[in-house]
Amino acid sequence: MERNLIDSQIKGVSTGTTILAVTFNGGVIIGSDSRASIGGYYVSSKTINKLIQVHDRIFCCIAGSLADAQAVTKAAKFQISFHSIQMESPPLVKAAASVLKELCYNNKEELQAGFITAGWDRKKGPQVYTVALGGMLLSQPFTIGGSGSTYIYGYADAKYKPDMSKEECLQFATNALALAMGRDNVSGGVAHLVVITEEGVEHIVIPGDKLPKFHDE
Amino acid sequence: RFGQLSSGSDMAPDWTMKEVSTGTTIMAVEYDGGVVIGADSRTTTGAYIANRVTDKLTPIHDRIFCCRSGSAADTQAIADVVTYQLGFHSIELDEAPLVQTAANLFKASCYRYREELMAGIIVAGWDKRRGGQVYTVPVGGMLVRQPVSVGGSGSTYIYGYMDSNYKPNMTKDQCLRLVSGALSLAMERDGSSGGVVRLAAISETGVDRQVILGNQLPKWSTA
Question: Which domains does chain B have, with CATH numbers?
Answer without folding.
Answer: 26-212 (3.60.20.10)
